[in-house]
């Protein structure tokens, strides 16, 4: 039997142990692994492992529909987790400034239901007063763009969380990035930008002389808690040794301990290795976003 690709949504009918009543069962969810057994994560987050020899029928299903409300929740959590050093709400747009460090920390996101094009002049003025490019971060379905080429198109990936794993002795978690963390990160992003967060907690994970990552737990508009993984870096000499997976697993467990029931990560569309890493950790594509300049593009709701 040929198995669908890992990450696909499937329905499996399989045999139960001899003497079971009924003799067959079904499971619907996303395929996490294939081999001697098939591992499936259901909609509720349960993990079901089915021996390959017991599979009677397996069928690939269309991707589950992502609601606009769910996109808004994830983007709200992500914006609060990377808010720059200055923030302001303008007619449903969440504006962030970080002295030009990173697009994410220097862009406006349409998080409110009242976000319209009428706010664009005020957004341009706000960023211009700070000597910054007025970037808009536009997620799928939250705002309608006029035709324009996307800049730094990004995939938002998400998964549900259940229980925390046992602490990994190789991974160190600290509330602020130390000198070694910053050295391994290799990006000129000030500490005040990295540690900034709105209504949440932030942590910095590291494996000595090998890899670093950042985790942040924030609360969405419905009160749900999400943990986001960012600033993931592995040194060239330490690649392909499982360090990135260790860091991510540790941050997911930290998120569960801090009340998170969902997790997200963001990767550029052309970052194949990053997307593959998160797929192996059970993340699925949720939606996409892109940056546009408010001062050069015509937009309509």
Structural category: alpha+beta
Roughly how many Å is the radius of gyration?
Answer: 21 Å
CATH superfamily of the largest domain: Gcn5-related N-acetyltransferase (GNAT)
Q: Biggest sheet: strands side by side, in what order?
A: 6-7-8-9-16-10-15-14-13-12-11
Largest sheet: 11 strands, mixed
Mean of pLDDT: 92
Strand percent estimate? 35-45%
User: Which geometry do the CA atoms define?
Assistant: globular
**Helix amount:** 10-25%
Number of helical runs? 6
CATH class of the largest domain: Alpha Beta
The residue ranges in which pLDDT falls below 50 over 5 or more consecutive positions are none
The rounded distance between the terminal residues' Cα atoms is 48 Å
**Structural domain count:** 3
Q: CATH fold name of the largest domain, please?
A: Aminopeptidase
Q: What string, H for helix and E for strand, traces the elements in order?
A: EEEEEHEEEHEEEHHEEEHEHE
CATH architecture of the largest domain: 3-Layer(aba) Sandwich
Overall number of strands: 16
């Amino acid at each position: 039997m040929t198995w669908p690709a890992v990450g696909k949504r499937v329905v499996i009918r399989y045999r139960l142990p001899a003497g079971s009543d009924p003799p067959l069962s079904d499971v619907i969810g996303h395929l996490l692994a294939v081999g001697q057994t098939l591992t499936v994560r259901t909609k509720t987050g349960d993990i079901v492992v089915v021996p390959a020899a017991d599979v009677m029928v397996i069928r690939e299903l269309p991707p589950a529909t992502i609601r606009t409300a769910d996109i808004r929740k994830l983007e709200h959590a992500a914006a609060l987790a990377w808010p720059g050093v200055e923030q302001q709400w303008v007619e449903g747009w969440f504006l962030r400034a970080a002295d030009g460090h990173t697009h994410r920390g220097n862009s406006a996101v349409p998080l409110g239901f009242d976000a319209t094009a009428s706010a664009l002049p005020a957004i341009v003025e706000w960023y211009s007063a700070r000597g910054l490019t007025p970037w808009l971060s536009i997620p799928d379905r939250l705002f309608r763009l006029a035709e324009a080429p996307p800049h730094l198109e990004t995939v938002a990936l998400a998964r549900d969380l259940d229980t925390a794993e046992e602490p990994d002795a190789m991974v160190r978690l600290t509330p602020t990035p130390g000198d070694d963390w910053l050295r391994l990160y290799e990006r000129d992003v000030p500490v005040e930008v990295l540690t900034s967060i709105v209504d949440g907690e932030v942590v910095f994970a590291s494996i000595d002389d090998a890899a670093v990552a950042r985790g942040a737990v924030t609360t969405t508009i419905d009160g749900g808690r999400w943990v986001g993984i960012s600033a993931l870096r592995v040194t060239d000499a330490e690649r392909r040794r499982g360090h990135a997976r260790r860091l991510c697993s540790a941050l997911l467990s930290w998120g569960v301990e801090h009340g998170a029931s969902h997790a997200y990560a963001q990767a550029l569309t052309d970052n194949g290795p990053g997307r593959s890493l998160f797929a192996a950790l059970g993340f699925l594509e949720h939606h996409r976003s892109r940056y546009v300049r408010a001062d050069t593009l015509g937009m309509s709701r």
